[in-house]
Design a protein that fits this description.
Elements: E1 6-11, E2 13-17, E3 21-25, E4 38-46, E5 56-61, E6 64-72, E7 75-79, E8 84-87, E9 92-96, E10 101-107, E11 114-122, E12 133-137, E13 144-146, E14 152-157, E15 159-161, E16 166-168, E17 179-185, E18 190-194, E19 200-212, E20 219-222, E21 225-229, E22 234-251, E23 259-261, E24 264-266, H1 269-281
Antiparallel strand pairs: 1-21, 2-3, 3-4, 4-11, 5-10, 6-9, 6-11, 7-8, 7-10, 9-12, 13-14, 14-17, 15-16, 17-22, 18-22, 19-20, 19-21, 19-22, 23-24
This protein binds fe (ii) ion (FE2).
Fe (ii) ion (FE2) is lined by residues 56, 59, 61, 66, 103, 105.
Length: 289
């Protein structure tokens, strides 16, 4: 067993996006804070509607996937194809923007807690101009696994290798074979899982605190920090004294250059400029296929 070390810790920055939604951005806070194919991870967490009620009015995406995972509160999404859905607490939307999508994402309550995440996953160049699609996953359709140390894991995407059996997540077969687990570890719990050595992997602590790595070579990771993992074939983490809520992500890197301007993520500057022209001309969603 070759435990992956933590090679970099990224503290989330408080920022705002959309129509003034306050959020914490770890991956994606700069072009140097990415881990191929993961472009961005935002956490939104507020009980003040002034922080989120403006939502994310109509905006475009091209060239990647957005994954929205709600912990609390509801989010209504509507897109240019007439798709409309409401994410409830615990639900996931996996949207493959690919060649182009224009949509809105709007919180549905005037009071109460809004809490969740949005992850951006890059697509390889061969799929950046494919037709857009999305999947809404209800909370009950996300498999849960009880861990031997007392915690729980939700297997949102990919494959989870448990002690005696494999659990298939709610989403499989995306371009970069993403594994996405939400772990709730009890105080002091040690968790180890296999992570194939051809994958890039990181985790994000959203509750509590954790320590990761070989015993004796642990790196502490606090709430609102992302930890990028180095080479190896397993991940090992210990929850702190208050337990830990952790998102774990791994995927096959694209190995391709990234040219990004806001919500357009392509391989070259020219392709990004084409996307900006297409959006301005009203043809962003007409080129896919
Ligand atoms: Fe969006």
């Amino acid at each position: 067993m070759n435990i992956r070390p933590v090679k970099r810790v990224i503290s989330a920055l408080e920022t705002s996006d959309g129509a003034g939604v306050r959020l914490r951005r770890s991956l994606g806070q700069s072009q140097w804070a990415r881990l191929d194919p993961f472009l961005l991870l935002d956490e939104f967490n507020s009980d003040d509607p002034d922080d989120y009620i403006g939502g994310f009015p109509s905006h475009p995406h091209r060239g990647f996937e957005t994954v929205t995972y709600m912990l609390a509160g509801r989010m209504l999404h509507e897109d240019h194809m007439g798709n409309r859905g409401e994410l409830e607490p615990g639900a996931v939307q996996w949207m493959t923007a690919a060649g182009g999508i224009i949509h809105s994402e709007m919180p549905q309550q005037q009071d109460g807690l809004l809490r969740g995440f949005q992850l951006w996953v890059n697509l390889p160049g061969s799929l950046k101009m494919a037709p857009a699609s999305y999947r809404d996953i209800k909370p009950d359709d996300i498999p849960q696994v009880r861990l031997s140390g007392g915690g729980m894991a939700k297997i949102i995407a990919g494959h989870f290798e448990g002690q005696n059996k494999q659990t298939v997540g709610a989403v499989t077969g995306n371009a970069t074979a993403v594994d996405f687990f939400d772990l709730k570890l009890v105080p002091g719990e040690v968790f180890i899982c296999a992570v194939a050595s051809d994958r890039n992997a990181f985790f994000y602590v959203y509750d509590g605190q954790a320590n990761s790595g070989e015993p004796g070579q642990l790196t502490g990771v606090d709430r609102w920090q992302a930890a990028l993992l180095g080479a190896g074939d397993h991940w090992r983490v210990e929850a702190g004294g208050q337990g830990a809520g952790i998102l774990f992500l791994s995927a096959i890197p694209t190995g391709e250059p990234v040219a990004q301007q806001g919500p357009f993520v392509m391989n070259t500057r020219e392709e990004v400029e084409q996307a900006m022209r297409d959006y301005r001309d009203g043809t962003l969603t007409a080129h896919a296929g």
